[in-house]
Input
Amino acid sequence: MQKNTHADSFRRPSVSHHISGHLARELSRATNRSSFFQTLSRLLKQEFYFDRLCINLYDSNSELLTYFSAAQGTVVSSLSPVRKAEKTTVAGHVIASRKPVVIMDIAEHFAESLLHPMTEAGLTTTMAFPLIVNDEIMGTLHCSFAQKPDDLYKKMELLLELCPFIAVCLGAILAMEQLEQGAAINPVIDDSLVEGCDTFIFESPKMRHFMSLASNVAKLDIPVLLLGETGTGKTHLAHYIHTISKRTKNKFVEVNCPALATTLFESELFGHAKGAFTGASAKRVGRIELAHQGTLFLDEIAELSLEMQSKLLNVVDNKIFERVGESVSLSVDTRLIAATNVNVSKALKEGKLRSDFYYRLSTFTLELPPLRHRQEEIPILANYFISRLSILHGLPGIRLSKSHMAQLLEHDWPGNIRELRNVINRLLLKNSMSGKIADDDIRLAMETDPFAYGEPMGIDMARHYQWPKKASSANLHEVERQHIQGVLKQTNGVISGPRGAAAALGLPRSTLQHKMRKLGISRKNEQ
Output
């Protein structure tokens, strides 16, 4: 790394008292990471200008880095929010050396690799510092510039003196989180980031290019069609596009098309007037109206009836709609993002998808690659899910051996990233019961993926049910059919309720019923 400099080699000027005083007061009343980081950013900007400021937290167990809070300033869209602390990276080198780093020409420094994400974002100069508490590396502080400042080293001296204080603040905030949640907290994971678009993790040059393209499309405010197999992350990508678009301060409204009954879909989407039909005792605002000036995300768009496709086409083209039971046209300004996992060419040929509707939606198309085409990202995704799910379920974490990781890399992942998450979920459960993970446990976890078609269920439910094994010769639909039938048998045909099949599968009742009809599962099992 260029211009590595140990903190002790610098003259230590006295930092202005109002900065440390403001930080101390902020810490005493800070309730979350974001408020503290925003105050830090504001106070530093009173001292000098910077183009980007961020803090990475470091987990020595998983060797993962993630943002303490959302970065301030220039967006580096092709840099994954969760990544490995490789020594070839700026943060990785700071952690390994425990010394600050200054790079005065990022493009030249990383000239042997592909275009660096920071260079792509227009940044030329960066400096990074270790954040250390009780001799433990908690993370790194990064300050970057579009043009190298003339007084770069003066700024570095200021940040060097502030870093120990910032590190103590981080430790205190993380300790408060631990007390509030009443459980051991992995400091790398911030739920405010985990639940939003920042969960979209990517590492390979191919995916960095893809995310850079997605970022550019997000700013154009045009309809976008997301293609990709089940479990590749289309919903997360839709959130990401909304979050970095000009509509980010307005609502993101999601519609899971298969989950809504055909008879109710129009009312859900467009809303209805009072008395429009039996049971309509009050006016209802539809999803399109809720998404006014925001983003409307239609998931599994190919499941819509041709009639509804036609009505939606009118909304996209003319930006007007009518509530059910009303004849007054209402104008709406919403950005439409649609997603499907079907073969679009086949759906068009079979008449399941209107060509005019498809071409209007696909002003720009982004196709997410399956996990088997992103194998280099499996280790970081696996470690991320270990960190995330162990916290979510209150379970001890696990460390995957080289043998374990080799099995994950060899798997074909028909359920993609969702399947990987669920395999890790099962391994955490197994470890919590036996205290260890054997090679056979990895194989068994991948042979049966009980959560592939919905969110992971709670720990108690997971322990209650025994899951059918997947026949290697069966196709994905047959596996799903057998799995749902097996769960219905376990629940004695009960679908709803806390011990019903829908809860066990992590699905809404309506979604499970739709899947049963689609897969030809007899309704006689329903009670």
Residues 199-367 form a domain with the Rossmann fold fold (CATH 3.40.50.300). Residues 102 and 127 are 4 Å apart (CA to CA). Confidence is low (pLDDT under 50) at residues 1-15, 182-198, 450-474. The chain is about 45% helix and 15% strand.
